Amino acid sequence: MSSQSKSYAVQANVLWQKQPKANAELFALTYGALIGELLRDLEQPDLIQEELDKMGYSMGCRSVEELLAKTELKCATFDETAEAMKMAFRMFFGISADSKIAKDGEYTIYFTDNPLTLFVELPDHLQELQYNQLLAGWCRGMLESLQFDCACSIISDILKGDSVTTVQIRLNQVLQDGAGEEYQEE
Amino acid sequence: MSSQSKSYAVQANVLWQKQPKANAELFALTYGALIGELLRDLEQPDLIQEELDKMGYSMGCRSVEELLAKTELKCATFDETAEAMKMAFRMFFGISADSKIAKDGEYTIYFTDNPLTLFVELPDHLQELQYNQLLAGWCRGMLESLQFDCACSIISDILKGDSVTTVQIRLNQVLQDGAGEEYQEE
Question: How many CA atoms lie less than 13 Å away from A57 in the CB half-sphere?
Answer without folding.
Answer: 13
